[in-house]
Each structure stands twice: as C-alpha cells, then as structure tokens.
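Protein: Catecholate siderophore receptor
Species: Enhydrobacter aerosaccus
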Amino acid sequence: MSPVTVVAPRPSQDFTPPPVSLGRVGDNVQDIPQSIVIINKALMQSQGATSLQSAIKNVPGVTIGAAEGGSIGNNFNLNGFSARTDLYLDGMRDPAQYYRDTFDLEQIEILMGPASMLFGRGSTGGVINQVLKKPSMRKFTDLSQSVTSNGLVRSTADINLPVGEDAAVRVPFMFQVGKTSTRNQTEVLDFGFAPSYKFGIGTPTEVTLYSLLQRNHDHVDYGVPPLNGWPANVSPNNAYGYSSDYTDSNIAMVGATVEHKFNKDVRIRNQTQVNYVSTYVVETAPNAIGTINSAGVFTQVTYYPGAAQNLWVRQQSHDRNIIDLTIDNQTEFQAKFDTGPVKHDFLAGMEIGYESYRNQNYTRTGTCGSTTFTASYTGCTSLLYPSGGNSYLPEVATNLATSQANWVGIYGNDNIQLLPWFKLVGGVRQDIYTAQIGNSVNSANTAGNTTVPYQQQTVTFTSVRTGPIIEPTPEQSYYFSYSTSFNPSLEQLTSTTGSSILPPTTNEAFEVGAKYDLLKKNLSLTGALFQITQYNARSPNGDGTYSATGNIRVKGARIGVAGRITEDWQVFGGYTYLDGRIINGIGSGTAGNVPLNTPRDSATLWSTYTFAKKYEIGGGPTYIGQRYANNTNTVTVPGFVRWDATAAYKLEKYDVRLNVFNIGNVLYYDQVIASDGGRAVPGSGLTAMLTFNVHL
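Structure follows.
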C-alpha cells in the first residue's frame, strides 16, 4: 500500500509575518521600499491583545495619544507624528472617532513613513491598516471566554461555514463587560459582530460582502493633570471624572469587493465601503490643578511646593454628539508583463470619496467653593482623594460644527526589474481634496472673534515614491526610498480657529534599509535608517489664529525581528530610535524642542516556547523612554519598563491561556496628550487574564 501523509496545523501558532493584504502596497515584503510591521492573529492571541490599542502599543515607534476635547477614540503617533486620520479598514479610510476592537481582525499592518502615493492625504509618520477576517472554504468554529482580575468578562466567537461549492459565510462576535484597567472609571459594555459573505472562491471572479456592527458604552480615561513639570504624583488609580460619565458609540460599516483575474498576471479590483459612526459623549476631564483660599476662590497653579493635600482639580466637561460618515470607492488594475528583458509589476488606480462630520458641543457648568465657574467647568475635586460620584448638571448647547469633504485621486506605480538582482520602484499620485466647514458660533463673523463661521478649501497635490531595491538572493533585499505626503489644513474637518486658509502641511522622507529572511523564511529581520521632515506645520499665534510656519524633523533608526527560530521557539520584537526636533516653532518657545509624545528610545520583545507539543510559556518587556506631554517640553513623562508573561496548555480542540500584564506592578504612563498643559494616562497595574478557547 502507498503511504499516506496527513498534514494538520500544529497546536502552536506562528509569528512569521504573513503576506501584505493590499496589492497596492506589494505582495512580497522584500519589494516594499519602506519599513512595515505586521501583527498577525497568532501574536495578538499570544499577547492577549483585545483592542487595536493594546495590539499595536508594543510596536516600537508607536505611541498613544489620550482623549481630549476635540478628538476621542484611537489616537496614535507613528514616528513622532500624529496618525489620527491615518487609520484604514481593509485599505479604506476609517477616520471616525471610536475605540476599535480586534475580534474581527485577521492582522494589522503598520506601514512606516509618508505614503500619500499609496493612500492619498495624510500618512506623515505612516498608516495603520486593519485587515478584517474573511470567509474561506474551511469549516470551523472558534469560541473564546476570558475573565480578568479587574472584573472584565469577554466572550468572542468566530464561525466560518461553507455554503456551496465556491461560497462561504463568516461571522465573528464579541461581547465584553467590566473594568478594562486597575484604574477607576474604566468600565465598558461593548458588543459587536462582523458578518461577511464571499462567493466565487477559487474562480476568476470573487465577490466579498462584509460589514461591522458594533456598540460601545465606555467610560473613557482622561488621565491625570501635570504638576511641577511631571504628571501629578498621585495614586495610579485616581480618576477625576464622574461615575455618571460615559461615551456611547454606534458603528455601522458595510463594504463590497469585486476582484476579477483575467489570468495569473492581470487582475482588476473594485471596492466600496461606507462607514457610519455616531458617538455621544458625556465626559469630564481634569483641566487644571489649583488652590482654594479661605474665601473659597479657586486659583490655578502649575508649580506648587506645598503639601499636595491642599490642592484641588478643576473639572471640565467634554460633552458632544458626533456623527461621522465616510463613503470610499477604489478601483485598481494590476498587471505583470515584460518589455524585452525588463519585467514590470504595474499598478494603476483611482479613488473617489466623500466624508461628512457633525459635532454638536455641549457644556456643563458648576461651582467650586465660592467660585462660580465660567462655561464648561463643572466643579472641583481633591487631587489626592477624588470624590467621583455622579453629576447631573444640565447641558447647554454651544458650537455646532458641520463639515464635508470630497476627494479624488489617480495613481500609478511600477516595480521594474532591470536585472535579476536589481529593481526600481516608482509611483505618482494626483489628489484633489475639497473641504468646507461651518460653525454656528460667531455666525455673524463678529470682528475680533477668531472662530470662523465658514471656510472652504481645495487642495491639489502630487505625491511620489521612488527608490532602488537590490536583491542578491530571494532571502535578502537592500533599498533606498524617497516618499512624500500632504495634510490639508481642513483634513480633520474640525477646525474652529483661524481666519485664513492655510496651505497643506507637506512631508518628505528618506529611508535606507535591509530585510532578511532566515531559517528557510521562518524568521524575518529588518533594519532601517530614516529621516522625515514636515513643512508648514500649524503654529498658534497669540490671538488664537494659526500660521503655517512650523517645521518638524525626525531622524531615526529601527530594527525588527519576527518569526520562528526553531519549530517551538517564536519571537517578535524591535527597537526604534527617534531624534525629533521642532526646527521652526509650532508655538511660542518651541523651536529646538522635542515634539510631544516622541520618546528617543523604545523597544519591545515577546518570545514563546512550546514544549511537549502542548505546553507554552513566554513573555517579554516593553520599554518606552522619557517623552514630553507638550511641545513646550514643560511636562516630562518618565520612561518605563513593563514585563508581561503568558502560559498556555493547548490541544487540538481546546486551549487554556493565562496572560499576566505588568508583572512588577510598575507605575507607567500609557497615553499622553497636550491638552490642559499636558495630561498623561497611567497604564493598568498588575492584571491577570484567563482565556479558555474551544475549536470545533
């Protein structure tokens, strides 16, 4: 009888980076002349990452921004620059203000550096692309139940079911309730599901219909205020809002992708996606620290040498009702062909889109001692012993900001192989972006009031990307690249100050790097040196308006490792060095300073080992160096090293995993924001999470 070999997946999963999901970026990582980090599902499960923030905060070069008055939801910095509008979902814009989960994600792709040639406006420091789970012809059901020592209970399910010879449906689910951190006022009640249907699988024409429906009822953490040049020295569990605060988000996204392959070398793809997010916010932030004298008058202080028990925190409402709508359509044509001895991998595409934004602001106003506050200040509470409690002050509607934007982009890129070991990459994109905003405040355009009632802007910009790639063998590549990007001044559709139309912020980057695949392509090593310069950065004037006079430059280096050293030993990690400088001031006294939330050094390492085929142990450190909470560098956020660990027992049908976060229970700051002088959000203390998974 002939022998029969049966191949089945091992209980341990692989950290080796999978192919990039987006054809426009490039299927082969070796042919991408920029640094890219891919976080796959196996790594997220191993680290116990349940949110987009927890999944990518361990990537060196990524820092987290906290919630503030004009922007909530996920706020990331890449390479020292804000990536607030550089979030993507399956390659389509995902700009809305909400908190993203990982229950529906197959992987996360972080492309470092300017990339307007590929993605249009934005992407100064890079882009973050979330890749949704899609149907396949393999039948499976994965069930997961988690509980943490903080009291968070989380349930997920991932069901994939073939429904014909070439069709399948997949439905991930999520529900969670409880505290997300050891800090007070961090309760959530979230649920969601992301059904998708794909037909024509394995045929020349494949069609995927997908969606995301999610409901979040969260208590957002606004952190602690600064004092004496540092985050206030208080208990890491202190929170300065009210127990009655909440943020409600309703997320509805639908999309469709049609891809037709004419042959193995020629294909065309069209994708349409509609994102609708409604967010209602009743939140209170620590605005300032001060004293209360014998007459009951509150006086703000920045430095205070006395006893902290004499200090109070002024609280400020950040209430608003936000509605985001984004409609995006992309058509891309890809072809591989030869012109004589020269090989081409050609891409041409067109993108059109529409976005609208509506933000109705509200204020709540209260008293502190004998001080009757002006609008938006709700009261005060002890710095050391905040009272929490409920607040039901009446809301008063203030500014209604409405805005909309339309854009169109046409682009082309060619990866040209001139010699077996030498390639040239060149691409160009032309964008036209038109936006208009309106504010109900100052609708009469009163002289001296800097809040404009109406603005309109049309920006035309040409983005480029080019560079050579040297590949002596298929396992190694060396590259140099030059790329540009731009950010219109009305890009975030939230501008409320400034009487003149500012030119777009423009960005350029130079990068030289190397990529190696070792151990039969099981282990990936990367390294790069880069410089990113931003021109026309927004600089505030003394009268509340802005000028485009700032320049920021970040020089850096990064190394990374991901994959499998042996069949049982896996590793993921890296180090990033950022030398950020404000060349021309983006505010009074900022020239020569370090941009906010830009640590010089950051590093992470995560490693697991499987023995006896079913037992797994692992863990590693995360390090972020000292950084500043504002561009004036008057508030310093200390660096930290945090250790996490995991242990698992894994069989074919089920596994049990224990994750322990912040083993040393160190005080560290997870997020920073420039608002209110420079707030910082402490990370969670020692926390354990037990997860039980069933595979059917």
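Remarks: Helices lie at 41-47, 52-56, 116-119.
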